[in-house]
């Protein structure tokens, strides 16, 4: 683990130095990501000023929902948002062979070398909004612990989705539609699952659990998940992760080098 952390830190420093070569460009791009993250909370404020908002959600609860979505998305933005893009380039150029030849896990190297520093900075947007909203709600230590668990589950789901799509990319190479699909799922995951029709609520909970991105973390910190029902979403994220790793192993075995 110590070696892996050193590798991740080295790649992070390299990526950050690359991005900061043109500092004005870095600041402008970072500002655009911050504005993107603030769009949801600002829209929530407007919605609650002109209407009753999301059914079953108070204003402060909706802000927690948005903050949770930002935190999970930005964690993934840092660790996984560029993985499919980098994998596409690596396979097309033959560079992916070098990942396979090194003494570390190819999957770990792929994620580490694809880290996107902006996500680490914009993560604080979600933390700030969460810190602003939580004091206005009856939160307990237990609910906070469950909240962290479900944030981790949401992040694990997005990583799993990235790994699953990466295993598909080994066969199709051009994976832009898969990248677009992840961003679209994240967009839907920012909204309360209970606003969707019943069939979509089932799909988004058990089969394509985008509810883990914001809905379940927010429900957990608000103390609205109880007993066995609180373990089901977490178990689904772990199962999804296991399936994605299995899919990756199958994809790697079937991989054919660009060199033949």
Descriptive report:
75% of the residues lie in helices and 0% in strands. It has one domain. Helix 2 runs antiparallel to helix 3 (59-79). By secondary structure, the chain is mainly alpha-helical.
Radius of gyration: 19 Å
Mean pLDDT over all positions:
90
- Helix/strand/pairing category: mainly alpha
Compute the separation of the termini in Å. Answer: 34 Å
Helix content: over 70%
Largest β-sheet summary:
none
Q: How many domains is the backbone divided into?
A: 1
Low-confidence segments, given as residue ranges, are none
Shape: globular
Number of strands: 0
Short description:
Helix content is 75%, strand content 0%. By secondary structure, it is mostly helical.
Search tags:
mainly alpha, 260 residues, 12 helices
Outline the fold blueprint:
Elements: H1 2-19, H2 23-50, H3 59-79, H4 83-93, H5 96-101, H6 106-113, H7 118-133, H8 141-172, H9 176-189, H10 198-207, H11 215-221, H12 231-254
Helix pairs in contact: 1-6, 2-3, 2-7, 3-7, 3-8, 3-11, 4-8, 8-9, 8-11, 8-12
């Amino acid at each position: 683990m110590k070696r892996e952390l050193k590798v991740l830190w080295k790649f992070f420093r390299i990526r950050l130095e690359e991005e900061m070569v043109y500092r004005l460009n870095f600041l402008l791009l970072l500002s655009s990501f911050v504005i993107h993250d603030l769009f949801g909370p600002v829209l929530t404020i407007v919605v609650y000023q002109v209407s009753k908002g999301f059914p079953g959600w108070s204003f402060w609860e909706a802000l927690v929902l948005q903050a949770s979505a930002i935190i999970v998305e930005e964690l993934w933005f840092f660790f996984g948002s560029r993985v499919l893009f980098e994998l596409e380039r690596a396979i097309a150029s033959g560079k992916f062979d070098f990942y396979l030849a090194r003494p570390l896990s190819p999957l770990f190297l792929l994620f580490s070398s694809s880290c996107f520093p902006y996500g680490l900075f914009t993560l604080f947007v979600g933390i700030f909004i969460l810190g602003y909203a939580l004091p206005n709600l009856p939160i307990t230590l237990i609910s906070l612990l469950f909240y962290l668990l479900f944030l981790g589950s949401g992040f694990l789901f997005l990583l799993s989705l990235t790994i699953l799509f990466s295993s598909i990319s080994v066969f199709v190479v051009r994976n832009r539609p898969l990248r677009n699909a992840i961003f679209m799922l994240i967009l839907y995951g920012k909204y309360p699952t209970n606003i969707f029709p019943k069939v979509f609520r089932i799909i988004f909970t058990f089969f394509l659990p985008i509810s883990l991105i914001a809905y379940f973390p927010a429900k957990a910190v608000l103390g609205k998940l109880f007993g066995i029902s609180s373990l089901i979403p977490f178990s689904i994220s772990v199962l999804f992760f296991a399936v994605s790793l299995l899919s990756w192993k199958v994809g790697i075995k079937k991989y054919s080098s660009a060199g033949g």
